[in-house]
Design a protein that fits this description.
Number of strands: 5
Strand content: 5-15%
Number of helices: 14
Radius of gyration: 24 Å
Shape: globular
Helix content: 55-70%
C-alpha cells in the first residue's frame, strides 16, 4: 500500500495536512521561511553562508583540500535572523547572508579556498535560544571535534564567561573542569607572537602556561630559553631526550612508580569522559609523547578485537 509523503509543514502530496504534524510544527519547531529546525540542506551556495563572527580565525585549511570533491560532514548553521536576534551588533558582518555557520568554519573557509561552490549544512535554530546557549554550543562542538587550537579555545571560553558571568559557570556549561578553563585562560596572558606559536603547535601548551605566568616583558626571553633547551635535547640525541622525559615523569610521580594498574585506578576515580581525558593529556604531554600514546592505544585496541 503506497504511503503519502509529507513536506516539512505536514502536507501530503495531495495537499492535505496531517494534524499531528501541524501540532508538532507549532512553537520552536515552527517553520520560518520554509526552514525547519534540524533540516538538512545540500550544497548551499557560499554567498548565502557567513562564518561565525565570534570565530573568524580558521588558520591553515590545507588538510581539507579534499572538500572540493566530497564533504564528509555537514556544517551546523543557524538562520541569519536568529543570529542577529542574539547579536544585533553583527549586522554588518552577516550582511545579506542567509545562514551563519557556528560549527564548520574551517570547512567553509576550505570551500572558499579550494573552489567548492556550496556547502552542506544542518540548520539548528533551536541552539540559539540565548546568547550564552549559542556561544556554548559553538565552543562545545568545535572543542569536541578538535576544530579549535588551544588559543582559539581560550578566546571562545573567555566569550562564554562574558555571557554567563563566572569561570565556574562556564566550566559547568562546557562540562569541563574549572582547572581546564583556568589553564586555557592563562594562555591569553601570552604576548601575541607566542600565542601564534601555540596556535601553530610549535610551542607546547605546558611550556606556554609556564611562560604566561611571567610579565609580558620577560616572556620572549623565557621562550628563547625553552627553545635553547629543545635544541640541546635534539643535539643530544634520543638518549638525552628519553632521560629528560623519564626525569620529568619521575618528578611528577614522586617516589611512586606508575603502573598500568595504578593509572587505571586513577582514571576510574576521576570518572572523566574520553574527551576530557584527551584534553588533559594534550595539556600534559608534548607532541612526541602524544604520538607515542596514540600508537600504543591503537595497538591495544587492535589486540582487544
Amino acid at each position: 500500500m503506497a504511503t503519502n509523503k509529507q513536506d516539512p509543514a505536514g502536507r501530503t502530496r495531495g495537499g492535505r495536512a496531517n494534524f499531528a504534524s501541524l501540532v508538532a510544527s507549532v512553537g520552536e519547531h515552527s517553520p520560518v521561511d520554509g526552514i525547519v529546525d534540524g533540516q538538512f540542506y545540500a550544497n548551499v551556495p557560499l554567498d548565502q553562508l557567513v562564518g561565525n563572527p565570534r570565530n573568524r580565525k580558521v588558520g591553515d585549511v590545507s588538510d581539507l583540500a579534499s572538500i572540493v570533491e566530497k564533504q564528509l560532514q555537514p556544517a551546523t548553521a543557524i538562520t541569519a535572523s536568529r543570529w542577529l536576534a542574539a547579536f544585533p551588533e553583527d549586522v554588518e558582518v552577516v550582511g545579506r547572508s542567509k545562514y551563519v555557520v557556528i560549527a564548520g568554519n574551517r570547512r567553509l573557509a576550505a570551500a572558499h579556498e579550494f573552489g567548492r561552490n556550496g556547502l552542506d549544512i544542518l540548520v539548528r535554530d533551536s541552539l540559539a535560544k540565548t546568547r550564552a546557549d549559542l556561544v556554548r554550543t559553538a565552543i562545545v562542538e568545535n572543542i569536541d571535534r578538535r576544530n579549535f587550537n588551544p588559543i582559539e579555545e581560550a578566546e571562545a571560553i573567555e566569550l562564554l564567561i562574558a555571557e554567563v558571568g563566572t569561570a565556574s559557570k562556564a566550566a559547568e556549561q562546557l562540562k569541563r573542569t574549572e582547572g581546564f578553563v583556568s589553564q586555557r585562560r592563562a594562555l591569553l596572558k601570552l604576548i601575541e607572537p607566542l600565542r601564534d606559536e601555540v596556535g601553530a603547535g610549535t610551542l607546547a601548551v605546558r611550556d606556554a602556561r609556564s611562560i604566561a605566568s611571567l610579565p609580558p616583558g620577560e616572556q620572549a626571553a623565557a621562550r628563547a630559553r625553552f627553545r635553547t633547551e629543545e635544541d640541546s635535547a635534539g643535539e643530544g640525541g634520543a638518549e638525552q631526550a628519553t632521560s629528560k622525559q623519564a626525569e620529568r615523569g619521575k618528578s611528577k610521580r614522586g617516589a611512586r612508580e606508575a603502573t598500568p594498574e595504578s593509572v587505571a585506578k586513577a582514571v576510574r576515580r576521576m570518572a572523566a569522559p574520553p574527551a576530557i581525558l584527551a584534553a588533559g593529556l594534550a595539556d600534559t604531554l608534548d607532541a612526541s609523547e602524544l604520538k607515542e600514546l596514540a600508537t600504543t592505544l591503537s595497538k591495544l585496541a587492535r589486540a582487544r578485537k
